[in-house]
User: Which sequence fits this backbone?
């Protein structure tokens, strides 16, 4: 009997130790909860592609586990540039350089780290990349690669890229088992087919960003917090849709006031 796997793709949750804490004026925990409430049905599995925590704190990871476990029992995480991999490992048993997890007889996920210590951009360790190549060569299922920094980025700004993207793409595009690559980091959604692979960037559950060709580069948008919901079919095909929170986001001046008040209150 054919079975469709419903996979929730969450990214860039940016939780902090204080459950009521703000990130750039946004209530990241309340936004995450609103996104999860918007899912039409309980998915089979969830993958969070990095920047789980804004501050890398254990309390933030405990918060992520408590909130996201309400959506589904099976949750997998990869680390992003804001994360602390050692703390993720201690709290979530996540943050490895590479972990391959079977979802069904037809599908597996390869959880890949692109964290580059001291940098906002990504870089996959060469040894890890070779391990990924070997794992893919042995794979007998369709594979989703899940990574924080997009190997095929829709933004040319250096911060938004994977430093060794050419080497990463060479491995990905020569592995026929790969059906899709899930990523985050950009805080904007995209769905780009390339050489038979779907490159799927998730929106952020915290806030969406515009990418400008200016020194500041990033600017928040009024778009709501969101996530992706994928259907993985036995034949390797993927159906992708988006889930949007029904929660109004604060305007720029309110975010500034909230940040200022939070800073004063913490003194």
Assistant:
């Amino acid at each position: 009997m054919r079975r469709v796997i419903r996979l929730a793709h969450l990214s860039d949750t940016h939780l902090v130790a204080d459950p009521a804490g703000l990130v750039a004026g946004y209530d990241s925990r309340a936004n995450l909860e609103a996104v999860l409430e918007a899912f039409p049905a309980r998915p089979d599995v969830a993958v969070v592609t990095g920047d789980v925590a804004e501050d890398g704190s254990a309390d933030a990871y405990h918060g992520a586990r408590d909130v996201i476990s309400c959506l589904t029992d099976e949750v997998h995480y990869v680390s992003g540039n804001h994360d602390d991999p050692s703390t993720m490992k201690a709290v979530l048993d996540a943050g490895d350089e590479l972990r391959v997890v079977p979802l069904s007889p037809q599908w597996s996920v390869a959880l890949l780290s692109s964290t580059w210590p001291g940098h906002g951009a990504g870089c996959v360790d060469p040894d890890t990349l070779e391990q990924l190549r070997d794992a893919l060569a042995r794979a007998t299922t369709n594979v989703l690669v899940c990574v924080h920094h997009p190997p095929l980025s829709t933004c040319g700004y250096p911060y938004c890229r994977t430093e060794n993207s050419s080497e990463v793409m060479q491995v990905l595009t020569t592995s026929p088992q790969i059906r899709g690559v899930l990523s985050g980091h950009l805080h904007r959604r995209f769905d780009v087919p390339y050489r038979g692979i779907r490159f799927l960037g998730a929106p952020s559950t915290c806030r969406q960003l515009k990418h400008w060709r200016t020194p500041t580069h990033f600017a928040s948008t009024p778009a709501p917090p969101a996530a992706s919901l994928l259907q993985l079919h036995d034949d390797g095909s993927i159906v992708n849709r988006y889930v949007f929170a029904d929660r109004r986001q604060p305007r720029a001046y309110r975010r500034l006031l909230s940040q200022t008040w939070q800073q004063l209150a913490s003194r």
In short: The domain at 5-265 is CATH 3.60.21.10 (Purple Acid Phosphatase; chain A, domain 2). The two ends are 61 Å apart (CA to CA). The longest helix spans residues 252-265. DSSP finds six helices and 13 strands in the chain.
